[in-house]
Amino acid sequence: MNNQEIDQLLEKLKNEIEGIQPNDEKGQALLRELSADIRELLERAESKQPAPSMMQRLQASIDHFEITHPDLTAALSSLSAILSNAGI
């Protein structure tokens, strides 16, 4: 997957996140952090290398929203798989 495709996926995730209003404080915090991580990745020109802490937050978000927001979880899982397949 090239950087343009990753950018498109990140934009899709950003839009999905903007439409979610979690009822719990942990969910709100996870989405704020994930949004910041996505903005950071979108701003990187050449390398889409996330920080290790982003990968941890990505997995925590997948775990937290798995039941309540399946579309978001699917998109986050796709991003995780893409980053993993790219050796990140």
Strand content: under 5%
Measure the end-to-end span: 13 Å
Q: Tally of extended strands?
A: 0
Assign a percent range to the helix content: over 70%
Described by the principal axes of the CA atoms, the overall outline is globular
What profile does the largest beta sheet have?
none
The total tally of domains equals 1
Number of helices: 4
Oligomer: single chain
Notes on the structure:
This protein has 88 residues and is mostly helical. It has one domain (3-85). The chain is built from four helices and no strands. α1 (3-18) runs antiparallel to α2 (25-43). It is globular.
List the helices and strands and how they pair.
Blueprint: H1 3-18, H2 25-43, H3 52-65, H4 70-85
Give short descriptive properties of this protein.
single chain; 88 residues; mainly alpha; 4 helices
Summarize the structure.
The chain is mostly helical and 88 residues long. It has helices at 3-18, 25-43, 52-65, 70-85.
